[in-house]
Structures are given as structure tokens and as C-alpha cells.
Amino acid sequence: MLNRYPLWKYLMVIAVITISFLYAAPNLFGEDPALQVSGSRGTQVTTAELAKTQQRLTEAGIEIKSAVLEDNQLLVRFRDTDDQLKGKDLIAQALGDNYITALNLAPATPHWLEAIGAGPLKLGLDLRGGVHFLMEVDMAEALSRVQEQQIQDFRTDLREQRLRYSGVLAKDDGTQVVFRDADTRDQALGFLRGRYPGLVFSERDSGDNFGLFAVMSEQRLKEVKEYALQQNITIIRNRVNELGVAEPLVQRQGAERIVVQLPGIQDTARAKEILGATATLEFRLVDDKADVSAANAGRVPPNSELLRDRDGRPVVLHKRVILTGEHIVDASASMDEFSRPQVNISLDAPGGSRMADFTKDNVGRPMATVFTEYKTGEEKNEDGSRQFLKQQEVINVATIQSRLGRSFRITGIDSMAEAQNLSLLLRAGALIAPIQIVEERTIGPSLGKQNIENGMLAMLYGMLAVVVFMLIYYRKFGLVANVALLANLVIIIGVMSMVPGATMTLPGIAGIVLTIGMSVDANVLIFERIREELRDGRGVQQAIHIGYDKALGTIADANITTLITAIILFAVGTGPIKGFAVTLMIGILASMFTAIVGTRALVNLFWGGKRLSKLSI
Prior knowledge:
The protein is α+β, with helices and mostly antiparallel strands and 617 residues long. Helix content is 49%, strand content 25%. The chain has helices spanning 7-24, 47-59, 81-95, 111-114, 125-128, 139-160, 182-195, 218-242, 268-276, 292-296, 349-360, 416-428, 445-498, 506-535, 540-572, 576-606, and strands at 31-39, 64-70, 73-78, 99-107, 130-137, 167-171, 174-179, 199-203, 210-216, 249-253, 257-263, 280-286, 304-308, 314-324, 328-335, 341-347, 366-380, 386-399, 407-410, 435-443. It is found in: Cell membrane. Residues 435-597 form the Protein export membrane protein SecD/SecF C-terminal domain.
């Protein structure tokens, strides 16, 4: 019999609509103004801070909806933004400088929906508000690090080749190697030129000293800067993802700058701590032959450096760095056999080989783990940017008991929270070069609210115009198309709420408005074909069957070409273009389903298999 669906097809349509509605439902409940309290530099948030927060807010007469402690973070929900802003100042004063209090918007999704993994749409910066940073990479420091590594490599290579040198020195524009005779200088020149093709070598003699001078070629200089920028972008993305910031935008701008947008974060303090931390580890050998008292008085050996441990005690270390944090591929916090916090380190293959070779020849000697951090100082450079201050601290000094490999551990950490914080930063990666924030903007939720309202009005007016037109022009079949249009909207919102990487932006709303018109376009093709068949004298059931069957090819062709365009936009676009492409792709697939399968199910249900002489079309 024509125009009859089997039961499973009806069940499939019902299941798709029901699941989409469930996952779209959290968007109906909105969000609560909230404060998110987290510890700074490893400080833990405990029930004591929860009780102190509740007591302080109660004394001030501020009513809260809830206060929950989860994953070492305190989330306090308020009834309005006025109480949220008042509460922020009170909580910050009550808890002190060891805690960061950030404004946030917490979804008000019921627990039964959260239990099935349903949550509201992730909104972009233009809709939800958040923070925008323009960050600049300190390329001078990046080049300085490459030069330091270059000096160490020169010394190691020349020793292995038994080419004696007087010194390897860093100059402003390159690296100088000094020899005692011209023959050794010439041998070293031939060897180093073959080993380092990215460097340009020249002879530089002075009196009885015979020297080589090495500078980076233009190509090598460009590669170093590009590597520093790309690695910093990757590491910032890793850090943001590790710390759970939803749907960030991290992309380059020009040769030395990075744009970072964090939707939903209204307080820049937490974001700065996430992004600006440049913590890394260095492993160095302790200069056990140096006189610590003399070094503390200012008489430090030429190839050594005086640092201090966490208790302020002086430690003399060799300047040569055995290994840096860039070779760390994994780091995790745990307890040792004496219930003391430690960080377990895993190295990549080159780092493991370097550590194994070094520790094999230095068993019995003390090795220090140095924590290095860069902070922005008050003094400024000539271009107006702030200078970076390098702060170094010896975490622990341990005697090398045996040859180390790719996995080992470091101890001497004060608390488990600090070990977890350090392991997170190391796992996410150490910035190749320090960064500074040259521009910072906080986008309030009021602007996003206005954008949402305007977008919703545009969508509402567009739908209303389409609904009225379809009802007038196609009568009862127009009603079927309108039901499919609503189902199409529910599916788009539901799918975008389910997809982890989907973010709703203002261009995304434009994509939905566009698909509203496209979703009824398929129905127009089908209904016009049914009308044509009826005018040609076909029976009602045969006209319906031919209308859907013959229009399918045209609908598929039109939608597939648009889908290909959306895929290309998603592949090559960034930011707003991606947001538009995502909603367009989901909207096209949803409109094809509702127009071809959904409306056919309704038509078959109400008109299929019946003896009819005319249709309300």
C-alpha cells in the first residue's frame, strides 16, 4: 500500500526528536550568577573555606542559592548579579591573597538532565562574555635560550673531538669560541660548519687568541622565532584545556603575538595565572668544590651560579643545564614511601638519552632541581613593554645513586597541592619564551545578553514569517512543514549541546536563521511536485508518493553542495567563520531529515493509505 511507514520508522523519528529535546532542554533553565573560588599556587580549598564563605555572606545579609565544594574549587551561586558582585569583594577579603575569586556563570541545569550528560550550549565570547588577551612572545629571551644551548653544545662537541679551546662566550649578536692556535681553530671551523648548517661562521682573531664567531643565518633566525611562537600557542592551548576552560580561542596574530579568548571568565586574575605561568624545571649539577661562604659573599666561580633553596640557604650550581622542562612529556603527583609529595617525571627519547649519559658519568655527585619562573616586572623596555624578571629556586638537591633513564621523580615539595599544580604546568608544557599581555579586555555578559536577544528576535521574526506564509499557501500541508521547522530547530540546538567542540556564536545564530529558510525550501519542492501531479490527474496517494520520490534527488543535490561549502568553511576558517559553518552543517543535515523523513511520517500518518479525493495543499 502506498504511503505507509513501518512502525520502526515512526519510532526512529520519535526517538530523534525526543533525544534532541532532552539535550536541548538545559538551555531553557538559564544560568546563575556565581563565584568560583580556587587556590593560588597550590593552595587547597577545603571545607573550612566553605564555612568561612557561608558565614561571611550570611553576616552581610546576602542570600545564596547554593555553595558546593568540588574538585578543590568552591562554587557559590547567587540569585542576581548585584549579590554576585557584593559577594566577590566579601569573599576575597575573608579568604585572603592565597585564593582567587572569579566571577562566573554556572548552568542551572537540573540534576536529572546532568545525569544523562545534558548541558546548555557553549556560548562564544560575543554571546557569553569573557576575557580577551593579546599576548606578545619575548623573542629576545627565546633567542637567548637558543644561544645558551648552543654554547653547551659547542663545548660538548669540541671536547668529544678533542679540540682544546680557551673559552666559549656569549656575545650580543652571536657566540665566540677562542682557541690558542690557528690549527685547532681551523679544525674546529671545518667540524662545526658541517655540524651546524644553520649557523654562519667567521674567523675573529685578537692578539694571541684565535677565535671563531658564529651567528644564526636569516633562515635559522626565522625558524627559531616561528618555533617559539607555535610552541607557545600549543602550550597555552594545553594549559587552558587542562584547567577546564570551555571552548577557548587561541590563535596567532602576526609574527610575535597570540590572541586568547576565554568565554565565560569574567575575572582576569584567574586567566592570567593560567596563561602567564612560565614555570619549568632545570636539572643542574651542584658545584660541590665551590666555597659556599665565599660565593654568598659575591665570589662565585666563573662557570657557576649562586641560587637559593626554599629555606633561603645558598646553593652553588654549575651554569651548564643538564636538562630543561621542554623534554618532559608527562608529569604526575603522588606520595613517596614516606608519605611525602613528589612529582613523577617522564622524558622524551632525546631527554632520556641525555639524562642517562650524564648521570652515568656522575654517580655519587649531587644534582639540583631548579624551579624557574618568569614574572612581569615594573621596569619597562625602550618600546614600552615591561621587562621580565627571572626567578629561580632550588626545589631539592639529591645525590645521583645510579644511572637515570626516561622516568624518575623529584621530591622536596611542600604540599600535595603544590605537587599537583607543578605537575599540571609541566604536563601542559613550559613556555618556550616568556609572554606578556599587551592588551586585555573584559567583555561583560550584558553585551552578550543583548546579542542573544537580538539574534533570538531575528530568528523569531524569520520563523514567524515562514510559518505564516506556509500556512496560507499550503494550508494543512503548511502546518506539517511548520511542525518540521520546529523539530528542525530542536534538533540543531540538541545536537550542538551534545557535540563537545560546538560553540554558539553570533555568526552561529545567523547560520540557524539561514537554515530556517532552507529547511522549508525542501518542503516547497515536495509540495509543488505533489500539486503538479494532482493537476496532471494523478490520484492523491500516487501524487504524494511521486512528489516525495521525484523531489528527493533535487533536494539532495542542493543540500549536498551547500554542505560541501560549509565543510570547506569549517576547515579553513577561524573563529566566527567556524561558528557559522558548524551551525550550517548541523542545520543542513537536520533540515534534510525533518523535510524528507519527518514530514513524510506525518503525511503518511494522517493521509497515507486512505481513499481521498482531494488534499488541503
